[in-house]
Specification:
Layout: E1 10-15, E2 21-27, E3 40-43, H1 54-61, E4 70-74, H2 92-105, E5 111-116, H3 118-129, E6 134-140, H4 148-158, H5 167-178, H6 187-197, E7 198-201, E8 204-207, H7 211-219, H8 230-233, E9 241-246, H9 254-264, E10 268-272, H10 286-295
Parallel strand pairs: 3-4, 3-5, 5-6, 6-9, 9-10
Antiparallel strand pairs: 1-2, 2-4, 7-8
Helix pairs in contact: 2-3, 4-7, 5-6
């Protein structure tokens, strides 16, 4: 997809319950045809931001036959949302309540939610606490039980501390970190990923998230048993559910994906060849599969 990362949407600022300012992108807001369909609300991963969904949001909001309004939210401490002075607020419960507040501010009473990695964990919390918000859910390479190997990968690459010298270097860093699991990406795909993850600040290319989030991940004892979210996953049972898994993912296993399907009873499962954690949702056949799923939701 092209490299225009700053058009096709309206920027909005939303106040969280504690007053912290959250940033969102609103695609398709000015198209009257989107009013007849449920909006799509996208939540990014641990240190990622709304730009992760930019290409997918353009595809869905500009669909010739069934355009959708698409909201992409920067969680607190990520992207253009404010950093939180109280670092303990970077937790699933607070971030789930931020989503509820954003829905209220944007007059969204029901939506189709897409959650990548950490965003999908937030959706587990919302399935348990606010299921009426959810018309359907897409979990991108995430589930209620995660592999320690994948968590270690995330911890390690977040805390390597290498800072890109320029955008070409940012692309090279991503290839070094993820090239072994993302084997089918073209050069523009890597560049799109770089512009989603990094931002320019004071003349430097930096990761676009509060550094405290990576430090919190570093502090987790991954040798201790990790709490799962199977009880919260039960909340998805009455909700149409699609789970996308990268074939090379080391965070969401085939066994976990199969167990999710067994427990849900009617889950749509998609495994993407040549992708690791998490799959890029705007590439190849994936947008068509997403459109087919969400059209059934209304």
């Amino acid at each position: 997809m092209g490299n225009d990362y700053e058009s096709g949407f309206l920027e909005k600022t939303i106040a969280a319950p504690d007053g912290l300012k959250l940033h969102a992108r609103d695609y398709g807001h000015d198209n009257p045809e989107t009013a007849a369909r449920l909006p799509v609300f996208c939540l990014p991963g641990l240190t990622r931001n709304s730009r992760d969904f930019h290409q997918l949001a353009l595809i869905l909001s500009n669909d010739e036959t069934a355009p959708r309004r698409v909201i992409t939210l920067d969680a607190r401490g990520r992207g253009r949302s404010e950093r939180d002075a109280d670092k303990s607020h970077y937790n699933l419960g607070v971030e789930a309540q931020d989503v509820v507040s954003a829905c209220a501010a944007l007059d969204i009473t029901k939506a189709i939610f897409v959650g990548t990695s950490r965003g999908g964990l937030v959706l587990h919390i919302l399935a348990a606490t606010h299921p009426k918000l959810m018309a359907a859910v897409i979990l991108n390479d995430i589930g209620p039980a995660l592999e320690i190997e994948g968590l270690r990968d995330i911890r390690d690459y977040l805390n390597r501390g290498r800072k890109p010298a320029d955008w070409d270097d940012a692309v090279n860093i991503l290839k070094e970190d993820h090239g072994a699991t993302f084997t089918t990406l073209g050069e523009q795909d890597w560049r799109d990923m770089a512009h989603a993850i990094y931002a320019e600040a004071d003349g430097h290319i930096v990761a676009d998230a509060d550094p405290a989030i990576a430090l919190i991940m570093k502090s987790i004892d991954l040798d201790a048993p990790q709490k799962d979210l199977w009880p919260q996953f039960e909340g998805f049972k009455p909700i149409p559910l699609m789970t996308i898994r990268g074939a090379n993912s080391r965070l969401l296993s085939d066994a976990a994906l199969n167990e999710m399907g067994r427990r849900h009873g009617n889950m749509t499962a998609l495994t993407v060849p040549g992708h690791g954690h998490p799959p890029l949702l705007h590439i190849d056949q994936i947008p068509n599969d997403i459109r087919a799923f969400i059209e059934k939701a209304g």
